[in-house]
Design a protein that fits this description.
This protein has a six-stranded mixed beta sheet. A six-stranded mixed beta sheet has the order 5-4-25-24-28-13, with helices on one face. Helices cover 22% and strands 35% of the residues.
């Protein structure tokens, strides 16, 4: 693969924004070696959700023969920049061989394509979404998916008129279900999950539950564990309620590492809301099912933890891309031959972050994307802010999923 082309722009009129981005793409093509792109990513802020079909048609006309995937988000991103509360587009064009990928949707099934992994976009209102994600992961040889759920504000601001659509794109515009693009094993990529919450209690194990109500943790009443771990046993109710409203739970499967490092969640931890208390049974209600054996940790959002973990995954990717150290014998053997061990290069990247992470959560507008750019360099990147993030066979929250394609 060669270096991808990418652009982003904002304008009240979606077609004008796309035209501005297209001009940036054409300026890059003067110096690029991609003559005919085969695949494109198109992300739109929710202001332009009602224009999704027209903008996709415009992109298909400008770059004929290119397959398109993407989604609508409350925010979208480019290299080092994010757009919230304004109409904007972000797009990227690549030259992945056509036989190495397949776009799929509800009307265009994956079929017999030999998928190693897949990028997935979905409507958050789809029923049994977790099960659908798991089934799709089982269709891939690696069991790894990446992507996120389309997002849009429920209420359009006063004085503005645009439909709030959680639409996703796969050579068409869809609402409901899921769609995306599957890749064969010949497409080189790497992906990492970054967490945005900080554990505030020990790792516990669910020992009794009824669907989303956890009754006991480590054979103790779950509500007692919550109050003790959050240190609110003796607090007045008015003081305790604000803390409880800010409390989340981190869930991990019984065989996963709930904490990968001291005070840091592992990659497999899914963060869910604490949605209620059950004083009659001394239980707690959470925003997911928690079968017996599930590991559970109480947690809260933490800006510094989110920044540290984002730097960590970018560093891991950068280190993996660097050439391995040569032994002295190998170095001497290659000396004077003209053969060098060159590092891999990032052809393009997709970053899906939680809608609750963007903007001011990292301290300043575009600060999250600035961290990625500082760590990875000036590489083509697109993405969006999702109402749920997809990695492996799980649906996450308050995370970021960074995937890079390597040349």
């Amino acid at each position: 693969m060669k270096l991808f082309l990418h652009a982003h722009a904002t304008h009240a009129d979606g077609k004008t924004a796309l035209a501005q981005a297209a001009a940036q793409i054409e300026a890059q093509r003067v110096h690029a070696v991609i003559s005919q792109p085969t695949i494109g990513w198109l992300y739109l802020t929710d202001h332009l959700g009602g224009q999704a079909e027209a903008l996709l048609a415009d992109a298909q006309r400008r770059w004929p023969g290119t397959a398109w995937v993407g989604a609508v988000g409350v925010g979208i991103s480019g290299n080092g920049v994010e757009y919230f509360d304004e109409p904007a587009v972000s797009l990227m064009l690549g030259d992945i061989p056509r036989e190495c990928f397949k776009v799929f949707s509800g009307i265009r099934p994956l079929g017999a394509f030999d998928a190693a992994t897949a990028q997935v976009h979905a409507d958050p209102n789809t029923s049994d979404l977790s099960e659908l994600i798991g089934e799709l992961a089982d269709r891939t040889s690696t069991g790894y998916l990446f992507g996120g759920l389309a997002s849009a504000r429920a209420d359009v601001p006063p004085g503005e008129r645009w439909p709030a659509r959680c639409a996703h794109i796969a050579d068409g515009v869809f609402e409901g279900g899921l769609s995306g693009v599957a890749f064969s094993a010949d497409v080189a990529m790497m992906s990492r999950v970054t967490q945005g919450c900080q554990p505030v209690g020990p790792v516990r194990r669910v020992t009794a539950s009824q669907r989303n109500v956890v009754l006991t943790l480590d054979d103790e009443p779950a509500l007692d564990c919550l109050l003790r771990d959050m240190d609110i046993n003796d607090r007045e109710p008015r003081e305790a309620l604000p803390r409880l409203r800010q409390t989340l739970v981190g869930l991990s499967d019984s065989q996963d590492n709930a904490l990968s490092r001291a005070g840091q969640f592992g990659n497999d931890t899914r963060v869910r809301h604490l949605v209620g208390l059950d004083p009659a049974r001394n239980g707690i209600a959470i925003g997911d099912v928690a079968p017996v054996g599930t590991q559970l940790t109480f947690c809260s959002r933490n800006t510094m933890a989110a920044r540290r973990d984002l730097v960590r995954i970018c560093s891991e990717i950068r280190e993996e891309l660097a050439p391995a150290a040569l032994s002295l014998e190998t170095a001497l053997a290659l000396k004077g031959t003209g053969i060098e061990q060159a590092p891999q290069r990032i052809a393009g990247a997709v970053y899906v972050s939680c809608a609750g992470r963007g903007g001011g959560h990292f301290g300043a507008p575009s600060a999250e994307l600035a961290i990625v750019r500082h760590a990875l360099g000036d590489v083509p990147l697109v993405g969006f802010f999702a109402s749920g993030e997809i990695a492996r066979h799980h649906l996450y929250g308050y995370t970021g999923v960074l995937t890079v394609f390597t040349a």
